[in-house]
Amino acid sequence: FEKAIALDPLNLEARNDLAIMYVALPRLLGGSKARAAEQVAFIRRHDPALAMQIDGDFLANEKKYDAALAAYNESAKLHSRPIIHVRISLAHQQKKDWEKAFAALERALDAGERGTQPARHHLRHDAGRCGAEREADADLARALRDRVRDHAVDADAGEDEREEAERAEQAGAE
Question: Fewest CB atoms less than 10 Å from the CB: which of 38, 75, 109, 118?
Answer without folding.
Answer: 118
